[in-house]
Design a protein that fits this description.
Rossmann fold; DNA binding; globular; Carb_Metab_HTH_regulators; 10 helices; Arc Repressor Mutant, subunit A
């Protein structure tokens, strides 16, 4: 395995588990501790991880999201459970925005399976490909600058399209959120799109598993109070749930 491949694996592993020891990585990758240490040092130099005693942890200041294919493999059942709850918020005849992401892809599938006649707007190409075969759903793609890594459109052009719409519900995905920083992203182009969707919708719903909580990116999108609902899994600590409820946000908890 090439150094770049090992480092990609390590970053993906930390994205899912938040912390790992050098010994565990050496075993997983069947390489020496010295090799692992060099790889971790490169990731730390890039600002992605922080070296701690005996191992490494994911940097809370998120520098880069995982590509779509890798994110799709993480917490798959949790995402499907979130999608089932999200679908129950949707009524026939509504105009729905589905943000780019693997959780929102599962929402598209849940809506499609229920044969609800809705209009869906998205900036996600994978969601768009799925909707191409669902004749009962009216479908708009935002267009705009293409982000190949995440199979979506970002930036001013995509945001401008969304700002011209009246949306009933916007389902927003994220790689990073918490009470202190609200919703954020390491990518300015994504921030513009999410902000446009939030401003154009009468009901805003954050969909995110708890592994994304406590991370933050450079670009602030909105405070948590911008959301009417948050759908998350049962691994988010109860004390945090209580603090979020105090912000007058409806929480929907699913099994992880």
């Amino acid at each position: 395995m090439l150094p770049e491949e090992r480092q990609s694996f390590i970053y993906s592993y930390l994205y899912q588990h938040a912390y790992v020891t050098f010994s565990a990585l050496a075993q997983l990758l069947n390489v020496s501790h010295m090799t692992i240490r060099r790889d971790i040092q490169m990731l730390e130099k890039d600002g992605k991880v922080t070296i701690i005693s005996g191992g490494a942890k994911l940097n809370e200041a998120l520098k880069q999201e995982l590509p779509w294919q890798e994110k799709a493999q993480l917490h798959h059942q949790t995402k499907r459970n979130i999608a089932r709850v999200a679908e129950t918020l949707v009524e026939s005849g509504q105009v729905i925005y589905l943000d780019a992401g693997t959780t929102t892809y599962e929402i598209a599938r849940s809506i499609g399976d229920q044969l609800k006649k809705v209009t869906i707007v998205t900036n996600d190409f994978t969601i768009g490909d799925y909707l191409m075969e669902r004749q009962h759903i009216t479908f708009f793609h935002t267009g705009g600058q293409v982000d190949r890594r995440n199979r979506s459109c970002i930036g001013n052009s995509a945001a401008a399209f969304i700002r011209g719409l009246n949306l009933d519900i916007a389902f927003i995905s994220t790689s990073s959120w918490d009470i202190e920083h609200g919703l954020s992203t390491p990518d300015e182009g994504k921030a513009l799109v999410k902000q446009a969707a939030l401003a154009s919708s009468r009901r805003n719903v954050l969909v995110s598993d708890s592994s994304k909580y406590g991370k933050y990116g450079m670009f602030h999108i909105c405070p948590l109070q911008a959301f009417d609902d948050i759908i998350h899994d049962d691994l988010l600590p109860e004390e945090l749930q209580e603090k979020i409820k105090q912000l007058a946000i409806n929480l929907h908890v699913v099994k992880s």
